[in-house]
Give the backbone structure.
Amino acid sequence: MDLPAQGVSSIAPFDCDTDDFALRSKWEKWKRSLEIYFEAASITDAAKKKALLLHNGGSSLQEIYLK
């Protein structure tokens, strides 16, 4: 995601390939980073947030979402 005018860079994709015990913790931390990203980039539209969640989440997260 390229937002040079706002000075906000994208976040790393979510790593879905982890054991079940650590997955929830990793998800909560990643989601918190995404919410901070939305705030910094002044993104409030729900459809855009969803699209950016899936885009920034990466292909593994997209596969889970689309199941």
